[in-house]
Amino acid sequence: MAEEKNCQGCNQSHRCQEVYEHLSQTEGPGVAFKAVIAFLLPILVFIGCLAVFEVILAEVTNSKGVQTAVGFLLALIVSGVCLLIVKAINRGLIKNK
Questions:
Q1: Helix axis angle, 64-96 relative to 41-60, nearest 10°?
Q2: Could you tell me the end-to-end alpha-carbon distance of the chain, in angstroms, rounded to an integer?
Q3: How many CA atoms lie within 13 A of 74 on its CB side?
Q4: For 34, 46, 90, 95, which has the most beta carbons within 10 A of its beta carbon?
Q5: How many of the other CB atoms lie within 10 Å of CB of 21?
Q6: What does the alpha-carbon distance between residue 42 and residue 14 come to, in Å, rounded to a whole number?
Q7: Comparing 40 with 94, which gets the higher pLDDT?
Q8: What does the alpha-carbon distance between residue 73 and residue 79 come to, in Å, rounded to a whole number?
Q9: Band of pLDDT at residue 10, cut at 50, 70 and 90
Q10: Within 10 A of 40 (CB to CB), how many other CB atoms are there?
Q11: Using alpha carbons only, what angle is made at residue 87 by residues 97 and 44, rounded to the nearest 5 degrees?
Q12: Mean pLDDT in the chain?
């Protein structure tokens, strides 16, 4: 609604409408897969690593605090490495296109 008020007094409002119409008709590559990889993969890796490291660390130490802290840090490191790998692959794919 605020945008309509701004356009009412503008002498170029018809031009804006043409630009928006043109932009709405353009087609580009889908971003759904990239969005899933960028947002969901690191979360899934983190959760999976956290679960695996908790099981492994339960056999190594009896202290729940140490298990939680070390498991969290290791899962965070693995997730960070996963992000770096995804970025490297993405940059490699962009350069090859």
A1: 150
A2: 42
A3: 16
A4: 46
A5: 9
A6: 44
A7: 40
A8: 10
A9: confident
A10: 10
A11: 125
A12: 82
List pLDDT tens digits, range 36-47: 888 899 899 999
Give the pLDDT score at 1: 42
Q: What are the domain boundaries of the chain?
A: 30-96
Amino acid letter for position 86: V
What type of residue sits at position 9? G
Q: Are 46 and 77 in contact (CB under 8 A)?
A: no
Rg (CA), the chain: 24
Question: Would you give the distance in Å from CA 60 to the centre of its chain?
Answer: 34
Single pTM value for the model: 0.64
CA atoms of 11 and 13, how far apart (whole Å): 6
DSSP 28-92: ----HHHHIIIIIHHHHHHHHHHHHHHHHHHHH---HHHHHHHHHHHHHHHHHHHHHHHHHHHHH
